[in-house]
């Protein structure tokens, strides 16, 4: 069925009649009977609708999946040939050096198992069997996906009035609008009609929980690194395991949180440990496959663009930490891509002179040799085919070109004025991410290192992904079982039931009565957190609401926010939040400690001990609101340590028992000079702002 391209294009059909955007509800009911098409799994249905739109129609989706399967099969075949079919010792044959024989006849085995069933051949055969089984399952999945895509295509054409040609130019908000409008005549949900927010909440049901857990520091994903402190690691491999162990295991068929999931901590721990064993068994084969796949995918790109070695991009962890609740992937990717230039500008505020000098020297040497060889070939073109140190001159020119381009990627030209605060503010306008301990400290080493941990070299991201295949079993067996209780507590405390949707993360439900704050533009003031109730960060609800309403003009805040937010008063929520807008929760516990030294040298030794502790607190204690050290302006030997905690328990049961604090305490007790320490604790009253 063809649809016109003008502005009056119909948006749906009922029976055989197309209905237009300006048809009223009564006209539709008078002309057509109500069509019941209740979908049993609306989460899956709306997710397929979104993917169908994102990938631009049936044929594009089908072709992409077929080609992905062929690429998978090709990778398996090539890796199998390299593992079993190549005689690598043939590289040393004299006839190859004398160009008197063919490479194929020397290096390709006549039979893959001509060496017998060695350990290498057995492992290679097992690798091929596992990959072959996966390919068969992928083929079966493809067949089911094509059938599902055909159903979605019919729904788009017949119900939404969106043809294959039209879908290439229509926006997602318009698709959402038509999904809401089509419910005038076609019932999708048995209990009630769904709004745009309801549809997105269903698509993002599981992802919203993961966003909340990562922002609260619920998940213990600190991977051990030899010779360094543990590194927080989140990769695709870990994501798959988190989905299987937690997110996919949470819900029943009615999209309610399973009671046995919430109250069976041991079962969650066992799932982690079982997956640790499976990951350990599969890790050698998965590592071999991914190395082969990435080599074939990236080798040509690196050969023609060696400078990509120094390129940076947001890490998988950053993509989750910077993601807002109910934010679909294409909106997130748009924000992150738009922030790349600003992020590079902030990174360039802190050049590494030593690396730049080394890179300049390498580029100078490589460029000099390349220029010399080119000059010689201009004199006599036949020199290109001659040997130089056992290699053709062409080979040396190609190698020098790669070294030259790669080294230039690490040369930083300082052409911008040093203004880290302005540079970071520009990044925040896109990322909407500015932790409390970053504010006013963009120039510090701590903030710089934390930012670089989110915006990393692509080469580092690749090695992290490969290393995670080996580290994932350790995290699943040792780290994650220890935070199983925190995961269940988070789910229990931050789940609400919405009629027609099911259980969702309360932070994604525009639940301003529960999480709202007037200082961020909320029309209602939520009760302040008491005791150990978890909170994802003040202003999160409002930032999400403002972002969604800016993306979708028809979005309306739900559940306690029917009057919606005032965008004029909340414009700063999509950029750097002003310090005056930070709400103060009731019962924030404050500790002010003064330390008096006999000399500035003694003070500096103490500060050197304090610095790594402050860095640890900023990165690992999200409920420590402030942790700062100040020097008196009239007495340089007097120091004030100002600490603020969400509750007193966050000081006594978290901070005071942490290993870095205990090590700091022991080190200060062993200092060879005296100092006087006085202090007082307080409770904030919520008057004024901090």
UniProtKB/TrEMBL annotation:
**What transmembrane ranges does the database entry give?**
58-84, 119-143, 272-296, 361-381, 393-411
Limits of the ABM domain: 589-681
Reply yes or no: does the keyword Transport apply.
Answer: yes
Q: What does the UniProt record say this protein does?
A: Phospholipid scramblase involved in autophagy. Cycles between the preautophagosomal structure/phagophore assembly site (PAS) and the cytoplasmic vesicle pool and supplies membrane for the growing autophagosome. Lipid scramblase activity plays a key role in preautophagosomal structure/phagophore assembly by distributing the phospholipids that arrive through ATG2 from the cytoplasmic to the luminal leaflet of the bilayer, thereby driving autophagosomal membrane expansion.
Keyword line: Autophagy, Lipid transport, Membrane, Transmembrane, Transmembrane helix, Transport
GO BP terms, alphabetized: autophagy of mitochondrion; lipid transport; piecemeal microautophagy of the nucleus; protein localization to phagophore assembly site; reticulophagy
What protein does this entry describe?
A: Autophagy-related protein 9
Q: Where in the cell is it found?
A: Preautophagosomal structure membrane
Tell me the InterPro entries matching this sequence: ABM_dom (IPR007138), Autophagy-rel_prot_9 (IPR007241), Dimeric_a/b-barrel (IPR011008)
**Which family does the UniProt entry place this protein in?**
Belongs to the ATG9 family.
Checking SUPFAM superfamilies in the record gives: Dimeric alpha+beta barrel
Q: How does it sit in the membrane?
A: Multi-pass membrane protein
**Which is one Gene Ontology cellular component term of this protein?**
phagophore assembly site membrane
């Amino acid at each position: 069925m063809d649809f016109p391209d003008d502005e009056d294009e119909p948006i749906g059909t009922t029976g055989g009649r197309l209905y237009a955007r300006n048809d009223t509800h009564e006209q539709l009911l008078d002309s057509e009977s109500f069509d019941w098409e209740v979908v049993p799994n609306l989460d899956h249905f709306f997710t397929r609708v979104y993917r169908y739109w994102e990938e631009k129609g049936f044929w594009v989706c089908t072709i992409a999946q077929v080609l992905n399967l062929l690429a998978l099969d090709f990778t398996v075949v090539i890796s199998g040939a390299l593992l079993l079919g190549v005689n690598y010792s043939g590289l040393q044959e004299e006839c190859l050096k004398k160009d008197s024989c063919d490479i194929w006849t020397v290096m390709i085995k006549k039979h893959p198992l001509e060496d017998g069933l060695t350990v290498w051949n057995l492992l290679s055969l097992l690798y091929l069997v596992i990959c072959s089984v996966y390919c068969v399952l992928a083929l079966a999945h493809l067949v089911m996906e094509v059938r599902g895509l055909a159903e979605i295509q019919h729904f788009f054409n017949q119900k939404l009035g969106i043809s294959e040609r039209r879908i290439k130019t229509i926006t997602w908000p318009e698709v959402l609008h038509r999904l809401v409008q089509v419910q005038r005549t076609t019932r999708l949900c048995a209990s009630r009609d769904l709004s745009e927010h309801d549809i997105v909440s269903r698509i993002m049901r599981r992802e919203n929980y993961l966003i909340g857990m990562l922002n609260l520091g619920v998940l213990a994903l600190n991977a051990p690194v030899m010779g360094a402190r543990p590194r927080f690691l989140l990769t695709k491999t870990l994501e798959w395991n988190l989905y299987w162990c937690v997110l996919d295991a949470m819900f029943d068929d009615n999209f309610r949180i399973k009671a046995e999931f919430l109250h069976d901590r041991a079962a969650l721990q066992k799932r982690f440990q079982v997956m640790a064993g499976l990951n350990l068994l599969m890790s050698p084969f998965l590592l071999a496959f991914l190395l082969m796949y990435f080599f074939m995918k990236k080798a040509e790109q690196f050969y023609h663009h060696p400078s990509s070695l120094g390129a940076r991009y947001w890490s998988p962890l950053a993509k989750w930490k910077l993601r807002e609740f109910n934010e679909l992937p294409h909106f997130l990717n748009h924000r992150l891509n738009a922030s790349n230039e600003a992020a590079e500008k902030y990174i360039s505020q802190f050049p590494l002179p030593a690396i730049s000098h080394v890179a300049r020297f390498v580029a100078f040497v490589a460029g000099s040799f390349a220029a010399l060889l080119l000059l010689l070939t201009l004199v006599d073109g036949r020199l290109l085919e001659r040997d130089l140190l056992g290699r053709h001159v062409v080979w040396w020119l190609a190698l020098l070109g790669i070294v030259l381009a790669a080294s230039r990627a690490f040369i930083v030209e300082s052409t911008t004025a040093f203004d880290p605060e302005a540079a970071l503010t520009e990044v925040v306008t896109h990322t909407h991410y500015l932790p409390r301990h970053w504010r006013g400290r963009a120039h510090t080493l701590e903030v710089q290192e934390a930012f670089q941990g989110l915006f990393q070299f692509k080469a580092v991201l690749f090695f992290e992904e490969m290393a995670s295949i080996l580290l994932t079993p350790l995290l699943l067996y040792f780290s994650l079982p220890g935070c199983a209780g925190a995961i269940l507590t988070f789910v229990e405390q931050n789940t609400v039931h919405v009629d027609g949707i099911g259980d969702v993360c309360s932070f994604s439900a525009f639940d301003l009565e529960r999480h709202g704050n007037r200082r961020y533009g909320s029309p209602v003031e939520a009760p302040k957190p008491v005791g150990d109730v978890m909170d994802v960060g003040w202003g999160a609800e409002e930032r999400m609401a403002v972002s969604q309403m800016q993306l979708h003009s028809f979005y309306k805040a739900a559940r306690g926010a029917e009057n919606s937010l005032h965008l004029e008063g909340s414009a700063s929520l999509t950029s750097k939040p002003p310090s005056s807008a930070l709400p103060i929760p009731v019962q924030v516990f404050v500790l002010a400690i003064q330390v008096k030294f006999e000399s500035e040298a003694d003070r500096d030794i103490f500060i050197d001990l304090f610095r790594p502790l402050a860095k640890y607190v900023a990165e690992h204690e999200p409920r420590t609101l402030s942790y700062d050290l100040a020097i008196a302006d009239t007495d340089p030997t007097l120091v004030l340590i100002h600490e603020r905690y969400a509750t007193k328990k966050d000081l006594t049961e978290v901070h005071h028992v942490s290993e870095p604090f205990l090590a700091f305490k022991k080190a200060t007790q062993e200092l060879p000079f005296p100092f006087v320490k006085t202090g007082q604790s307080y409770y904030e009253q919520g008057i004024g702002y901090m």
